[in-house]
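As described in the Methods, two query proteins were run sequentially through the folding procedure within a single session, without resetting any intermediate state between them. The first query and its resulting structure tokens are shown here.
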Amino acid sequence: MSLSSILIVGATSAIAEQTALALVGRCKRFVLAARNHERLLGVAGRLRARGATVYTFAYDAERMHDVDLLAQARQVLGGELPDAVLIAHAVLPRHEEVVHDPIMAHRTLEINTVSVLTLCTAVCRHFEERGSGVLAVISSVAADRGRVNNFLYAASKAALDVYLDGVRLRWKLRSSQLRVLTIKPGYVRTPMTAHLERMLFPASPERVGAAIARLIAGRRDGRRYIPWWWRPIMAIARLLPDRVMLSIKQ
């Protein structure tokens, strides 16, 4: 399946950039939104060097909840909505810095949860009016089970899973041309995870980005684990008693 265009929010993240690069050839036009202007121009330049048409917008997840990015994308795309939207921005704070800090906890939830669900609400409105579109959101395997560490981050992602499940069911009643992808990577070696001392079976951003690109350009929906074997791992983790989870530090 080829895409005429895609909007990528949080386009400067390592996974989002690799997804965009993997989509070149399957997608003609890219609308990129992110906070860091310099890095955003770098991503745009690498896509243009591969022959893509690219538009960029500044977007700050903490301050721009009232901005309709799809409406902005429609303007630069000549009045057309993008075929797909990928929401990829998030923060992963150090657990000990956030667990007792209400301000940092609020910031984490504002970026990872509130801003994402606000964006999804706008996407739902636009795509339902048109009757087609792909909404892909990067969640995490961490959302499947609370652990000793990083449970606030896990909770911020778990809210996305439940919301997206509901949107997916709603869209199945409306049109086969509406798809929701909940992207659930395992550990990925990126700047966001650089402070983690140990990671279980880490994947590269290139591998994860290529998998996401295939999913967006494909025809499937639902919760998609990357790599796939995280699905059975997390199915087991959900069944483990607390006494076992106490020994799992990451």
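Immediately afterward, the second query was submitted; its sequence and tokens are:
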Amino acid sequence: MSTGDKMDCLRMGLAFCAMITATAAIAAPSTYVNDRFGTVCTFPDEIFTERQPEPENGDGQKWLTADGASLICSGIFNADDETPKGFVASENASTEPNYKVTYSKTGKNWAILSGLKGDHVFYERRLFGKDGVIRTVWIEYPSSLKSKYDPLVGAIAASLKGP
């Protein structure tokens, strides 16, 4: 890691230092800011390289990887006044085939879910904003690639924020 990379790493915080160190190819992380909802997330763009077309409604962005992982950073209006606990309860009660929540945690204005969706691992973090917007980061990857993606998930999820 060059001196410049180390300085960038220190400016971004310890979570990104760990993420960058865990990544084979060292590159500056990319930060996405959604114009519609102000959702922000930072991720290693040397891994999530395939940016998909933005949806017409402008609610977020999706990136894919060459090995089958995906990352979505988005926002939605909280039209149903959903709460973190209510969201987690409904996901835990889901009867969707091949979908299983294995970990969940809530705070005053956030929720985290992790689990299995078929042969993929998923991780979702939601922020419930005072502005009536739910901001989400969703990361999904093949179970066979846990050792590659598990070290990245925490830092990407921790980068999620709004205005």
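The two ends are 32 Å apart (CA to CA). We note this only descriptively and draw no conclusion about the first query from it.
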